[in-house]
Design brief:
Shape: flat
Helix content: 55-70%
Radius of gyration: 40 Å
Strand content: 5-15%
Number of helices: 15
Distance between the termini: 89 Å
Structural class: alpha+beta
């Protein structure tokens, strides 16, 4: 009973695969024949186009010098060198035949084959299929141009017999090859269908588990190639698992090193002015608090923190005489100071990994009413990270000591932010910032960061 069931199952598998293979082979053969037909036709046309253009390149001097013998010689050589060429004609610009492989047609008007061309190029070359009953050919037409003027034409007729013979021979070879493949496929199906299902299912299960991040050792049902493949899969899965763990650790190390580098660079930027030391770090902490209140993901919070640390990177290009000036800035100095967001964007643009922070750095001095700089963005057009940094940057600047002003009190700075809400700052960000900054933990951090 088991043997009968096994045989029936094997027959069903073999028969199903055979039908699939037969359909696939049939479709493949049809597509292959069609593709080869197009390829052969294309090659014939390409060769004839080249022949036609070569003739057109040689003919101008003979036409201009009225050298009939020279034109006849060109036409004759082209015909003799190509057995599939039925005729070659050289005409003047009005299609009057100057030379033809059929000498009797010299002086007559050449009429091109009617109908839509098979192929047409910008230089005037046209390939048409001849629709006359006595002809079985393609007709290729190319204008003869000298000094940007058309002085004549070359027309070549190519017999289809060579093309048809090539098609027939190619079709036979393809069909014979596919027949052999089909027979071999049937033999393989009969041999393999009895024991191929179980190892393949086991491998499929292993691939699915590996895709989902799980790994269990696959059973080995045989010691043939499928068994070796199963062993190799088990080894590969173990190697992938080890590499994933190693890559995760390396990625974490790189991320930590990157963030540390950014923080060092931020401290170096602030250190140019002793009165702004720690400014970028404080802005980053406040910005992250706002981001958390807005529901940012972990990845978004990391990007916001780095952008905040970089927000004044453009001041690296600001001269010390401007950056460290204790008094009020002149209009020219103020204009130069106002260029630091653009300078920062330029600096970040040089490293592909830092380019995602450009919008926040470039636009953190835009105003909600559109009167900020450098681009005069307004409202929701201002990137969200830039709008957050605008608030935290202003708050820290107002509550920090400067040689030309005393720090504002915590409450005074908040009142100023509220006054500028909807003018300089986003009302939504101001509202969230007030909730964040008034928490006891935030106030304690503000005091300790300046201690």
């Amino acid at each position: 009973m088991r043997t009968t069931l096994f045989t029936t199952l094997r027959f069903k598998i073999a028969f199903s695969i055979f039908i699939l293979l037969l359909i696939t082979a049939s479709v493949f053969s049809i597509l292959t024949v069609q593709s080869m037909n197009r390829h052969i036709l294309g090659e014939v046309i390409k060769r004839t186009e080249s022949l036609c253009k070569s003739t057109a390149a040689m003919a101008p001097y003979s036409i201009l010098s009225n050298d009939t013998l020279g034109i006849d010689n060109i036409v004759s050589k082209v015909k003799e060198a190509n057995t599939d060429v039925d005729y070659v004609a050289v005409t003047d610009a009005r299609m009057r035949i100057l030379a033809h492989t059929d000498v009797a047609r010299r002086g007559a008007v050449f009429h091109l084959s009617p109908g839509d061309p098979l192929k047409e190029k910008g230089d005037g070359t046209r390939v048409s299929e001849v629709h006359r009953a006595e002809d079985n050919s393609f007709e290729i037409y190319t204008p003869i141009v000298f000094d940007k003027k058309q002085i004549g034409n070359v027309v070549i007729g190519v017999n289809k017999s060579v093309l048809l013979d090539a098609r027939s021979e190619t079709r036979k070879n393809i069909m014979a090859g596919l027949g052999i493949v089909l027979l071999l496929g049937i033999g393989c199906i009969i041999v393999l269908s009895s024991f191929i299902t179980r190892p393949i299912k086991e491998l499929s299960k292993g691939v699915g588990e590996l895709k989902e991040g799980r790994k269990s050792k696959l059973k080995i049902y045989s010691h043939d190639e499928l068994g070796k493949l199963t062993i190799s899969f088990n080894q590969m899965a173990e190697l992938i698992t080890r590499q994933q763990l190693s890559l995760s650790a390396s990625a974490q190390e790189l991320e930590d090193a990157y963030v540390s580098t950014v923080k060092v660079l931020s401290a170096a930027i602030d250190a140019r002015d002793p009165y702004t030391l720690g400014h970028s770090t404080r802005v980053a902490k406040l910005s992250v608090k706002i981001g958390k209140a807005l529901g940012f993901s972990h990845h978004e919070l990391e990007d916001l923190e780095v952008a905040s640390l970089f927000h004044d990177v453009g001041k690296l290009k600001t001269p010390d005489v401007v950056l460290l000036k204790e008094g009020s800035l002149s209009s020219m100095e103020h204009r130069e100071m106002s260029e630091h967001p653009e300078h920062g964007a330029e600096i970040l643009s040089r490293a592909k990994s830092l380019q995602k922070y450009i919008p926040a750095v470039r636009h953190h001095h835009e105003w909600y009413n559109g009167k900020g700089y450098p681009d005069g963005l307004r409202g929701e057009d201002i990137p969200l990270h830039a709008a957050i940094i605008a608030v935290t940057d202003s708050f820290d600047a107002m509550t920090s000591s400067r040689p030309y002003k005393n720090p504002r009190s915590h409450e005074d700075a908040l009142r100023e932010l509220v006054r500028c809400s909807g003018v300089q700052f986003s009302p939504r960000i101001i509202e969230v910032f007030l909730e964040v900054i008034e928490s006891p933990s935030s106030q304690a951090e503000q005091i300790s960061s300046r201690g």
